[in-house]
Design brief:
Order of helices and strands: HHHHH
Distance between the termini: 17 Å
Helix content: over 70%
Shape: elongated
């Protein structure tokens, strides 16, 4: 097992578990399931859009730097999510930061 497979599994597991937290996020923010689902849909788009860019950066600078930056972005997005009290912030935290952090670190295959 290479050093790249463990962070990849953690990032993909974090990304795939977002659906389990829709109800708790709805209870704490009061934004509604539809808006939380919209934030996660934005995350799907961001997750797919960042992968080719991250691949090009990894080819140029190496996968270690890309993985470190991706996991840091994922951690920041997940860490600030409980403190968000508006819809735009939730879309940024879950939809952009967390998904753009898990995209380079987690291969869809």
């Amino acid at each position: 097992m290479s050093f790249l497979s463990i962070p990849s599994a953690e990032a993909l597991g974090t990304r795939q578990s977002f659906g389990l937290f829709i109800s708790p996020i709805n209870g704490s923010t009061g934004r509604g399931i539809a808006f939380i689902s919209l934030a996660l849909a934005i995350g799907q788009l961001a997750w797919g859009a960042i992968q080719p860019i991250a691949g090009a950066v990894a080819d140029r600078y190496g996968p270690r730097l890309v993985l470190q930056a991706a996991l840091l972005t994922l951690a920041i997005g997940c860490a600030i999510t409980p403190f968000i009290d508006n819809g735009f912030g939730l879309a940024v935290a879950l939809g952009i930061l967390a998904s753009m952090g898990s995209g380079p670190a987690a291969s869809p295959c």
